[in-house]
Give the backbone structure.
Amino acid sequence: MHLVTFAEQGIARIGARVERGILDFSRVSDNIPRTMIEFLSLGESTLSQARNALSAPQDGWIIPVNETYLLAPVPNPGKILCMGHNYIGHIGIGKTEIPEYPNLFIKSSNTIIGHNNPILIPPAASEVDFEAELMAVIGKRAYCVTEAEATIAGYTIFNDVSARDYQRRTSQWMLGKSFDSFGPMGPALVTPDELPGVYQLNMELTVNGVPQQCINTRDIIFSVPYLIAYISQVMTLEVGDVIATGTPAKLPEASQQKRFLQPGDVVEITIDQLGRLSNPVASVAEPG
């Protein structure tokens, strides 16, 4: 399933992308929750109900896409856990050995925006950059689990937008990663049954149609089950928490340009079977 969170006439709820639009779960049954985290928390019984609706949808359940507004699939994740240096070829400046342990940091929830929402460049930052990433969503509460016990609700596309000038100020990355709107996510949460080859997906990021990153997820160093098992030794992962699995290196020509995002740009990330996440870039006016 391609699960989405959307708004119709200002009211947010969840559904699934189908060929004719969005199948609105609230029209199927009052028993299906209206938020993604609640939906995922109910587990297989609710997923089965949704699959049954998709197998024989009624016309009254489907809303045309142009009558809706897509939000991030998980608009308010409890935790946004991010990986650094998790792709072969992008393990840190001057480093040649694969890292022994995952390099983790956290973004704050104010960063999350959806497909077609603008990335806002604030007056305080002058070097705003992009990072295409595969994102996993936790499907079951996890504490001290093994890789085999890790439960993934699905995958989506993520852009770990970063203010490099802030990021370089200290050894801690969090502040440069956590400006408002610096976490585009979407367009849909794709369930694992539709992604049997999650580590064989082509991923590309373009700015104004020009390729900047191009990689295959086979080059990921630490897999999602490994990350869930590793992180869960430290903290409890809850349903709807998200893990951004890291970004690859830029293409050589993009690295040489050293061009940062500007108002008017359009950033698009495409990952096989997950779709396309597109976000325009705009400026934020000076306060006052």
